[in-house]
C-alpha cells in the first residue's frame, strides 16, 4: 500500500511540474480560442484543488498527522515538491504519543503548511459537513450534510459553491434547535439549498443567504423589531463618520425605491452631472471648474468653438450624457449619500407636479405585490415588495395606508392589462404591473432591477404583434439587444410568464429557466419547480411552447 501511495504522490508531483511548464508556455500571446480553453481548464483544476483542500484537511485530522515525529516531518520537508520514489517511501512517517510540535490538525495546517487560521478552520468545518469528522475516540463521524456531501463528490456542481453553502448552513446550526425537530429543520434547509444549487447555481447563493437570514431572524414580534430600528452613530473611522441604519422591511421598500430613482440617469433626480453639483454644496469641492464650453476660458476651449457645440454641451449637462465617463463617475454608494444629503440640506423646493426635478430629490414609488391565492388562504406570507422583501401582515396593512404605495394584486399568472393593437407602446399601468411582477431582467442570474430594464415586445408590433402583458418581457440594456441578436431565446409557455432558453454552449441540458434573482426563496423554489415541469412536458411533447424568434 505504501508503494502505491508513494507512486500516486510521485504522479502528483510530476503533474505539478508538467502544469507549471504548460502555464509558462501559455503565458505569452495566444489565440483567443486557446485563451478560452486555458481559462476553462484552469477553472476545472481550481474546482479539483478546492475539493481536495477539504479532503486534505479531513485526512490530516483522521490520520492524526499532527502527531508525526520530528524525523518524519524532516523527511517530508527534504522530499520537497520534486521528490524521488525513495524519498516518498521514506516520508511515510510515523506518529507518536509523546509531545509534538502541533496540538491538532489545525495547528499543523497553520504553522507547518502556512495556511491562514481562518482558512484552516473553514476547511475543517466544511470537512465535517461534507466528508465527516472524528470523535474524541478517533472513530469516524458521518457527514453532517449527507445530500450536499453527495453533490460535493459529484461532477455536476462546482464544489466551491457546495462547500460555501455547507458553511452557510453550518452557521445556522444553533438556530435549528435540537432533537427530532432540529433534525427535521436541518433536513428541510438542506433539501431547499440542494434544490437551488441544482436548479440555478448563479442565483443559489442569494436564495440560500436569504434562507439563513430567515432562520436566524425567526418570527420576532414587532415590538422587538421596533426596539432595534434607528440610525446609530458608530464614531469616527479613518477620517469619516460612520452611521448604522436599521429599518423595517416595509421601510426598506422606500429606501430601495429612493435609491432606484437616484440610480436612473434618465431622470432629473438621478442626473449624474446634477448629482455632482449637488455634492459640491456639502463637500465644498467643485466637481469640475470647467464643466462645459461656457465656463471655459478661450485658451482652454478645444471642441466648443461653435454655438451649436456650446448648445450641445449645455444639453448634455442637463441630461447627464456629456463625457463618456460621467455615467460611472459616481459610485452607487456615493450617489445614494448625495441624494440623502440633498434631502437634508437643499433649500430649494420643487415646483409644479414634478417633485423630483431637482437632482437628488427623488420621489419614492413603492409597489407591494399581494398574492391573491395566499390572501384567500389567510397565509402569513402573502405580500412582498417589488425589491423581493417579504412583509408581515401587520407591516403590509400599515404600508398600504401610506401615500406613494401602489398595491398590485396578482394571481399566479399576473394581472392581464391588455391593449391589443390599440397602441404601439405599453401603458404606464402595464409597465408598472410588468415591472412589479417580474422585478428585474429575465436573463438567468442578471441582477439588473426592473427600473433599469426595458419592456421587450415578444410579438413584434411591425409583424402584427399585440401590446399585451402575456407578450411582454423585461430585459436590461445588455440582454435586450442580446435577445434580438439571437444570443438567447425567450420562450412563451402556456399559463406562465415567459421563460428563457440559453444556447447549447451555455446550457448543454437545454432547460427552460426563470431568473429567480429577485424572488424570495419560496418564490424561487416554486419558479424552479414550474420551470422543471415545463421542461419535462415540453420534451415529452405534452405542451406546445413558442420559442420567440429574435
Report what the structure shows.
The chain has 550 residues and is an alpha+beta fold. It has 3 domains: 2-171, no CATH class; 230-345, no CATH class; 428-547, no CATH class. It is built from 21 helices and 14 strands. The protein has helices at 2-25, 32-62, 70-79, 85-90, 105-111, 117-130, 146-153, 159-171, 179-199, 201-217, 222-226, 249-262, 272-283, 307-319, 326-329, 332-345, 372-376, 393-399, 428-438, 479-484, 521-539, and strands spanning 133-134, 140-141, 230-237, 240-246, 366-371, 383-385, 390-391, 405-410, 453-457, 472-476, 489-492, 499-501, 512-513, 546-547. Strands 7-6-5-8 form a 4-stranded mixed β-sheet. Strands 13-12-11-14 form a 4-stranded antiparallel β-sheet. The protein has a two-stranded antiparallel sheet with strand order 1-2. β11 (489-492) and β12 (499-501) form a beta hairpin. The longest helix is centred in the N-terminal third of the chain and has 31 residues, at 32-62.
Protein traits:
single chain; 550 residues; alpha+beta; 3 domains; 4-stranded antiparallel β-sheet; globular; DUF222
Blueprint of the fold:
Blueprint: H1 2-25, H2 32-62, H3 70-79, H4 85-90, H5 105-111, H6 117-130, E1 133-134, E2 140-141, H7 146-153, H8 159-171, H9 179-199, H10 201-217, H11 222-226, E3 230-237, E4 240-246, H12 249-262, H13 272-283, H14 307-319, H15 326-329, H16 332-345, E5 366-371, H17 372-376, E6 383-385, E7 390-391, H18 393-399, E8 405-410, H19 428-438, E9 453-457, E10 472-476, H20 479-484, E11 489-492, E12 499-501, E13 512-513, H21 521-539, E14 546-547
Parallel strand pairs: 5-8
Antiparallel strand pairs: 1-2, 3-4, 5-6, 6-7, 9-10, 11-12, 11-14, 12-13
Helix pairs in contact: 2-6, 5-6, 6-8, 7-8, 8-9, 8-10, 9-10, 9-21, 13-16
Amino acid at each position: 500500500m505504501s508503494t502505491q501511495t508513494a507512486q500516486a504522490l510521485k504522479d502528483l508531483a510530476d503533474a505539478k511540474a508538467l502544469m507549471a511548464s504548460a502555464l509558462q508556455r501559455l503565458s505569452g500571446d495566444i489565440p483567443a480560442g486557446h485563451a478560452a480553453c486555458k481559462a476553462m481548464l484552469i477553472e476545472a483544476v481550481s474546482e479539483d484543488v478546492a475539493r481536495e483542500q477539504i479532503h486534505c484537511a479531513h485526512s490530516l485530522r483522521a490520520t492524526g498527522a499532527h502527531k508525526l515525529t520530528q524525523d518524519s516531518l524532516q523527511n517530508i520537508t527534504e522530499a520537497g515538491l520534486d521528490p524521488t520514489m525513495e524519498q516518498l517511501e521514506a516520508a511515510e512517517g510515523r506518529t507518536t504519543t509523546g509531545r509534538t510540535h502541533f496540538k491538532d490538525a489545525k495547528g499543523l495546517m497553520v504553522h507547518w503548511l502556512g495556511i491562514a487560521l481562518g482558512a484552516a478552520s473553514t476547511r475543517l468545518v466544511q470537512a465535517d459537513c461534507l466528508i465527516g469528522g472524528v470523535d474524541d475516540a478517533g472513530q469516524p463521524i458521518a457527514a453532517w450534510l449527507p445530500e450536499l456531501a453527495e453533490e460535493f463528490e459529484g461532477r455536476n456542481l462546482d464544489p466551491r459553491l457546495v462547500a460555501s453553502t455547507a458553511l452557510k448552513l453550518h452557521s445556522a446550526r444553533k438556530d435549528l434547535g435540537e432533537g427530532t425537530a432540529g433534525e427535521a429543520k436541518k433536513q428541510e434547509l438542506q433539501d431547499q439549498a440542494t434544490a437551488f444549487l441544482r436548479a440555478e447555481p448563479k442565483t443559489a447563493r442569494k436564495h440560500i443567504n436569504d434562507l439563513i437570514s430567515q432562520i436566524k431572524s425567526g418570527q420576532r414580534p414587532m415590538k422587538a423589531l421596533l426596539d432595534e430600528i434607528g440610525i446609530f452613530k458608530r464614531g469616527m473611522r479613518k477620517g469619516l463618520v460612520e452611521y448604522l441604519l436599521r429599518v423595517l422591511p416595509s421601510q426598506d421598500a422606500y429606501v430601495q425605491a429612493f435609491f432606484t430613482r437616484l440610480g436612473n440617469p434618465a431622470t432629473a433626480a438621478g442626473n449624474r452631472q446634477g448629482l455632482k453639483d449637488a455634492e459640491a454644496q456639502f463637500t465644498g469641492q467643485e466637481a469640475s471648474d470647467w464643466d462645459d464650453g461656457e465656463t471655459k476660458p478661450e485658451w482652454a476651449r478645444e471642441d466648443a468653438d461653435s454655438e451649436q457645440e456650446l448648445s450641445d454641451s449645455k444639453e448634455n449637462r442637463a441630461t447627464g450624457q456629456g463625457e463618456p465617463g460621467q455615467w460611472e463617475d459616481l459610485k452607487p454608494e456615493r450617489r445614494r449619500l448625495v441624494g440623502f444629503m440633498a434631502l437634508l440640506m437643499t433649500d430649494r423646493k420643487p415646483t409644479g407636479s414634478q417633485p423630483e426635478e431637482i437632482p437628488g430629490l427623488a420621489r419614492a414609488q413603492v409597489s407591494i405585490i399581494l398574492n391573491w391565492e395566499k390572501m384567500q388562504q389567510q397565509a402569513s406570507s402573502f405580500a412582498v415588495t417589488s425589491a423581493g422583501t417579504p412583509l408581515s401582515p401587520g407591516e403590509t396593512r400599515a404600508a398600504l395606508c401610506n401615500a406613494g404605495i401602489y398595491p398590485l394584486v396578482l394571481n399566479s399568472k399576473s394581472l392581464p392589462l391588455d391593449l391589443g393593437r390599440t397602441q404601439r407602446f405599453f401603458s404606464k399601468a402595464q409597465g408598472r404591473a410588468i415591472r412589479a411582477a417580474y422585478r428585474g431582467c429575465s436573463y438567468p442570474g442578471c441582477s439588473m432591477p426592473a427600473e433599469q430594464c426595458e419592456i421587450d415586445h415578444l410579438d413584434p408590433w411591425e409583424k402584427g404583434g399585440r401590446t399585451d402583458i402575456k407578450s411582454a418581457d423585461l430585459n436590461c440594456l445588455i440582454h435586450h439587444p442580446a435577445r434580438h441578436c439571437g444570443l438567447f431565446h425567450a420562450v412563451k409557455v402556456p399559463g406562465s410568464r415567459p421563460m428563457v432558453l440559453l444556447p447549447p454552449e451555455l446550457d448543454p441540458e437545454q432547460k427552460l429557466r426563470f431568473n429567480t434573482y429577485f424572488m424570495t426563496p419560496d418564490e424561487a423554489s416554486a419558479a424552479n419547480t414550474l420551470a422543471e415541469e415545463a421542461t419535462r412536458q415540453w420534451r415529452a411533447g405534452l405542451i406546445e411552447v413558442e420559442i420567440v424568434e429574435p
